[in-house]
Design brief:
With 220 residues, this protein is of the alpha/beta class. Helices cover 41% and strands 21% of the residues. The protein starts with a strand and ends with a strand.
Length: 220
C-alpha cells in the first residue's frame, strides 16, 4: 500500500519537483502552498509523513507542526529548509520534527530519509488487537474484522485510535476535539456524538460508556 505524504512548500517549482520524484518511487503526494490549507487537510485525511518548509506566508512551518503536535498528531515530519543556523535547527526539533534536510539537497538522500523514518516509526506499532474479531491496523489506517477491512471513515479511525491509546480510561470531550478537528473549527457535542455513535454501531452500544458531562470510555 502506498504511503501518503503531505508536502507544504510555497516554491512551486520545488513542490512540483518533489511531487514528480516522490510519485515515481510509489508515494502518494498532496502539495500545499499555505499552512492554513495544509492544516485543514490534516484533519480531513490521513498522512503517513509530512515534508515541511519553514518560511511560509502567515503561518510558519514551525507553528504549523507545533499546532499539530498540540493536537496529539504524531505523524512523522521532516523539515526542508534553507536555514542553516543552530537556532533554527533547535526550534525545528522543538516544534516536534523528526528530521531536517537543508536546501539544496539530493533527491535520493531525501528518499532514504523518508523511508528510514517511515520504517522506524511504524514497524513497532503496526497493529492493535481490540478483541478476537477486531484488529486496528495503524500502518494502513484500517479497522479489520476477522481479517477483512471494515468500513471506517477517517475521523472514526482517529477517534478509535484515541480510545485505544487510552483504553480503560476516560477520554474527555476536549481530548476528542483536539484529536479530530482543526483548533480554528467550532465543535458541537452533537458532532462528537456522531462519531461515537458510528463506533457503537460497529462494536455494540455497550462498547463505549458515556461519562456524563466529561466524555467517554471504551470498555469493550
Amino acid at each position: 500500500m502506498k504511503s501518503n505524504l503531505l508536502v507544504l512548500e510555497d516554491d512551486e517549482l520545488l513542490a512540483e519537483t518533489l511531487k514528480d520524484f516522490l510519485e515515481t518511487i510509489e508515494f502518494k503526494v498532496d502539495i500545499f502552498k499555505s499552512a492554513e490549507d495544509a492544516l485543514e487537510a490534516c484533519y480531513e485525511k490521513n498522512y503517513d509523513l509530512y515534508l515541511l518548509d519553514i518560511n511560509l506566508p502567515k503561518m510558519s512551518g514551525f507553528d504549523f507542526l507545533k499546532m499539530l503536535r498540540e493536537g496529539d498528531d504524531e505523524t512523522p515530519a521532516i523539515y526542508i529548509t534553507s536555514a542553516n543556523d543552530t537556532i533554527s535547527l533547535k526550534k525545528g526539533f522543538g516544534a516536534g520534527a523528526d528530521d531536517y534536510i537543508k536546501k539544496p539537497f539530493d533527491l535520493e538522500e531525501l528518499e532514504c530519509r523518508i523511508k528510514a523514518l517511515l520504517n522506524r516509526v511504524y514497524h513497532l506499532k503496526d497493529k492493535i488487537i481490540i478483541d478476537k474479531s477486531f484488529e486496528l491496523d495503524l500502518r494502513q489506517k484500517l479497522l479489520k474484522k476477522d481479517g477483512k477491512p471494515c468500513p471506517l471513515n477517517f475521523k472514526d479511525f482517529k477517534l478509535l485510535s484515541l480510545f485505544m491509546e487510552n483504553r480503560g480510561s476516560i477520554v474527555t470531550k476536549e481530548m476528542i476535539s483536539k484529536k479530530l478537528w482543526n483548533p480554528s473549527q467550532e465543535i458541537s457535542e452533537n458532532a462528537i456524538r456522531v462519531y461515537v455513535t458510528n463506533l457503537k454501531n460497529i462494536f455494540g452500544k455497550e462498547s463505549i460508556e458515556n461519562i456524563r458531562g466529561i466524555g467517554y470510555k471504551f470498555v469493550k
